[in-house]
Design goal:
139 residues; alpha+beta
């Protein structure tokens, strides 16, 4: 199946996809900050470069996009019809990297919280309070 966009249009669309400061990430950050939590962002020295680091709690939060991190059983994770092998390879590599960085962080003594994009779309408040409850248990 051929792509419905020209090469230039597809390139432009892909260039607009952000890796930092995404809407779900900003939503979680605003919630945490309003509740009095202070955090760091995208620490390059930590494995996997977590989206949010809470040093006081020795916790990190990853906010995963369902498509890019292969959220199984999610309606937002759809394997593309074009270049399927390439996309599956890329998504599987992302999943492997996620697993490696989570293991490395847990070994270093960090509590790892993973939030999926779809949870923030469907059950926003429930998900945000679940994150906060996880942090409360750590203190």
């Amino acid at each position: 199946m051929a792509d419905v966009h020209t090469k230039e249009t597809r390139s432009y669309n892909m260039s607009r996809i952000r890796s930092k400061d995404t809407k779900p990430e900003i939503l979680v950050r605003k919630f945490l900050f309003s509740r009095g939590y202070r955090f760091r962002l995208h620490e390059k020295k930590l494995p996997g470069k977590p989206d949010i680091i809470l040093p006081k709690y020795k916790a990190v939060i990853f906010i995963h996009g369902c498509f890019w991190h292969g959220h199984q059983g999610c309606r937002y994770f759809v394997i593309p019809k074009t270049r399927t092998d390439w996309w599956l390879s890329k998504i599987n590599r992302n999943i492997e990297n996620d697993d490696k960085s989570e293991l490395a962080l847990k070994t270093a003594g960090y509590k790892v919280i993973t939030v999926w994009e779809c949870d923030l779309k469907k059950k926003t408040l429930e998900t945000l309070y679940a994150i906060e409850n996880s942090l409360i248990r750590l203190s």
